[in-house]
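cache lookup: miss for this entity combination. No prior model stored, computing from scratch. Input as submitted by user K.M.:
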Amino acid sequence: MSELTLDVQGLSTHFFTRAGVVKAVDGISFSVSRGRVLGLVGESGSGKSVTGFSLIGLVDAPGRITAGKILFQGRDLTKLDERALRDLRGNRIAMIFQDPMITLNPVLRIDTQMIETVQAHDNVSREEARTRSRDALGMVGIPSPDERLTSYPHQFSGGMRQRVAIAIALLHRPDLIIADEPTTALDVTIQAQILAEVQKLTREVGTALIWITHDLSVIAGLADDIAVMYAGRIVETGQVEEVLDRPLHPYTHGLIGSVPSRNARGTRLRQIPGMTPSLLNLGEGCAFRTRCARASAACERDPQDTHPMAGRTLRCFHPQLEVTT
Amino acid sequence: MSEAALPAAEQKAGPPKQETPFARFVSEYCESPVAVASFVVVVLIVSVALLAPWISPQNPYDLAQLDIMDGRQAPGTKSLEGITFWLGSDDQGRDMLSGIMYGLRISLAVGVGSAAIACVIGTALGLIAAFAGGKVDGGIMRLVDLQLSFPAILVALMILAFLGKGVMNVMLALVIVEWATFARTARSAALVEARREYMEAARCLALPKWRLVFRHMLPNCMPPIIVIGTIMVARAISLEATLSFLGLGVPITEPSLGLLIANGYQYMLSGKYWITFYPGIALLVTIMAINLVGDQMRDVLNPRLKR
Amino acid sequence: MTTWILRRLIQAVFVMLAMTVIVFIGVNVIGDPVEIMISPEADQAERARAMMALGLDKPLWEQYWRFLLGALQGDLGRSFVFNEPALKLIAQRMPATLELALTAVLMSVVIGIPLGLYAGLKPNSVAGRTIMGVSIMGFSLPSFWVGLMLIMLFAVQLGWLPSTGRGPTRELFGVQWSFLTWEGLRHMAMPAFNLALGNIALVLRLTRAGVRENLPMDYVKFARAKGISPNRVVFVHVLKNIMIPIVTVVGLEIGGLIAFAVVTESVFAWPGMGKLIIDSINVLDRPVIVAYLMMIVLLFIVINLIVDILYTVLDPRVRLESKE
């Protein structure tokens, strides 16, 4: 059994705003093993990005982690000070953001932004840092890396920029990469290329990868495990083939059902009725109950994690054990 | 770790209280004690200026009341007639306090007057530019840009160099310096308002254009214009004081605070600081108070800072 | 790139021409040129002769033409007061004003940016709030009064600095500068600071606003996610982004400073162009006024052009687009 790179237990991140407390992440637990890919799936506002930032301690005021443990290779990240966290960031844990146009500094050259990452964690000369950066660019498939190093972000296309971001993430061969919707801003063909690159790299190096997205089809092709998030809570986890084949949570069910390719031509696209609730006024009970066809009085209480089968976690009182088309 | 207690906002039940936008503006404005204090100061200053002929101990421009033997008396001494020079007297024997009160009148009159005229002209042009669009808009804005690319003092200097000194010329110079800012603000506000639904509705009613602009659009453009207006009044007062100090402003018979300061300058080095110091304080307090009021109004009305 | 420069130059020429027209109208049409250009002590015969000599009996457009020709050759008339070519007078006084203005710019950057950075990074601290409060005073206080107060404090009460005048000068590139002597620096300290105050406040507020605007941006978060030290994040990543608008504003303000030196030079009796123009306006020495205005507009245009070019150099996005 491979060692757990990341083990999150009961993580909660709340934002204390003037309008009230926003429970962006409310008691979630999941884990990722060496060399495996976890897909964190959910719609906008489900708390997936905040989860990513919470892992590396980049949640800004008025938010903060209010409960839980984040065990990275056995160390609890919530207990570390800023200095220690900074040592890990970009080094043992790297993050890839959604839109590289706004995450790469537009007025600094690519080599500056890569060399500083190298020198932040390794005491090497500028030349060596530059060589490593160039090699990293080559690794992600960017042609003529020497020229590209002296360019500015806006001189790259969207797909290339994201490759640069991936290269930066790989500079120190991290043990864990958190990718927050990295291909959402790109077109489909580039997306496919990048997915293939990332997959290859993680298999080769053994990096654990958390891929945050709202796109189920990406997860289907890429991930080993899946965790479904809704309104700040994880409602279902398991291996990706099993969950997609036999979803247990009504939300997962609805999510899969609403993918256009699964619907027959000419019929109406299926939707989950209702809207995501505001995270300000969640109240007690299951967050999904207002939109769930199977909700009952029991759902007024907070469901807890259950394990209906091996390797599966579920938070629901009325799991959908039969398969419906 | 326990969560912070939920603020009362979360537990409020029932529909929100109805309050007019003005009432809300006032309550948000009053959130800053400095702003409230500044507003009070402004009201005080304006009152003093308006009531000066009645409340000042002496009319400093009535030569019959002056005695040169009273000149350059330190604050607190009594004049030969028995009134106290609370802030001292100047070289002609004029009571500083009275001089300041009358000086405030001139400073405020010129400052507010020029700002008001510039406001009317600038706003009108800005609205026309926004509404007419096309070449008219381009032409007016070109003029605005040209005007604003020159420093205010330079423009004022030029005008006064050509036309000579005097209150009317100073006001003219100030108006020419200030109109462009009003025009720009009015135009931006108008461009935003023109897209709003109520404008569409008014247009559908086939109202005549002037009515659309002046009865419907203008009232909604007022908030930023009022904010700019406040700040421009402060700027006008400051600029007039500067010009008067340089000897290019109001004539000696109707001295503004700037001229008072200039007159007292020469006595400063010999220790008779009050002749220049107190008018300076009066000017300072006036400008700062107006600026602070304008600042707070701007913060309150700024949609981007809405929580 | 070259077409753009060419276009700007042509624009500049147009503005200069427009200025000559405005100045000409101001002097010859609005004011009474006879009163203006001829010494008031002349009698009838002298007047008639002077009028002919100055060409005031010719039609207006011809007068303008003569004026323009003269201007292009550097002849803008002779000062009544000094009986020297007006342009020469202005040129003599220019170094004094320039060194004051440039020192003021230096001060505003050196003082304004660090204070603004601090206020932006720690907006709710006591120091941060105080800095912002004081900055409001910086541009709302009338500059001449602050100058007077400075003189009262540092010259009269404390006696640390000289109250008025320019210090001894030394030559550099054929021009006399006072910042090259220690006494010169002592004399320049207060006037330069007085002139700089408004600008310091401006740069300070711009820097703070830039910091507040940039800190929540994604590139900052990304830099932190890479493990970059907070110092580097602020001083390299954020600073480079806010420098561009600040440099632009500072550059454009240089012209304003040169114009506003008029006030500072009057307060501190600094022998620059500004003091000259005030004195000239008071005695109606019109040739000098004309020369000053033309000079100032020229300076403005040159400075604006340089700032524009500088902007394209600094911002890689603009620079590379115009190259392609």
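stored under new cache key. The mean pLDDT of chain A is 83.
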